[in-house]
Amino acid sequence: MTDQASTSLLHSAFYRFVPLAHPHAAADTLRALAQGLQGVLLVAHEGINGTLAGAPEAVAAFEAALQQASVLGGALSGMPFRHSACVTAPFGRLKVSVKPEIVALGLPSATGHPERNALPPPTQDDASHLSPLAWRALMSRQNVVLLDNRNHFEVRLGHFRGAVDPQVHHFRDFVDYVQAQAPAWRAAKRPVAMYCTGGIRCDKAAPWLRSLGLQVWQLEGGILNYFHQLDDASRDWQGECFVFDNRVALDSSLNETDTTAERVFDSNHPDEAWRLQRARRLDDAAC
């Protein structure tokens, strides 16, 4: 739990893979429900992905309304929300967008199946999702591939001890790395324990990894849920966790750190230099 729980802003992160026949109409509904909050909501045919912040009572009211049966046919009932307190306002405005995907990873179709939709849809509820305590036990096994499914700059800032960094600078880097390593992992019968910040990237990637013949485990709720559930998360975690908002990074107690964008991004790397420039523009706009 966070020591900053008494602050006036609460951050809420959530997503759900659920078929939405009319994403533009869904976006209009979400935009109306989120009035008074700030953040980013992405809507696609495959579901919703959101990060919002506001007064705790306003966030609670939004979450309750979102899960009512009358909203999107009740498809979001029971959706989990990951909370963290804020000292810095995470966002400057509310933005609701309709996208082709709620998270784009550039994944190929299933091996041997060129059809576009050969892979099964992502799921947040299958038995491959491990609680933080079960994840801790899995990490202690010697034969497990502990795979970080995030960008290289995120891994550099902080990661689970012993995790593999696939050196992701482009979406394709993760795909190339896994394809190159999968034959050896299969031959050695090594399960893949995959994690990311909130779980969505892993949910999206897991069906593809299974199509390569790999056994896949996932951290339920991602890094942020691990921090929330375990007071001694620092036992397994090294460094900080990057968050894609103005707070920049959190420690393993879900407290904001004093880390700046200059520390996160390497200006000598083209794929990080533009991120740094964007972060500086956001800082300037907030002044």
Q: What labels describe this entry?
A:
287 residues; alpha/beta; Alpha-Beta Plaits; globular; 2 domains; 5-stranded mixed β-sheet; Oxidized Rhodanese, domain 1; 20% strand; 4-stranded parallel β-sheet
Which secondary-structure class do the elements indicate? alpha/beta
Write down the secondary-structure element order: EHEEHEEEHEHEHEHEHEEEHH
Total number of helical segments? 9
The CATH class of the largest domain: Alpha Beta
Total beta-strand segments: 13
Provide the CATH topology of the largest domain. Oxidized Rhodanese, domain 1
Number of discrete domains: 2
Helical proportion, percent range? 25-40%
Radius of gyration, CA atoms, in whole angstroms: 19 Å
Gap from first CA to last CA: 30 Å
Mean pLDDT: 91
Q: What general form does the structure show?
A: globular
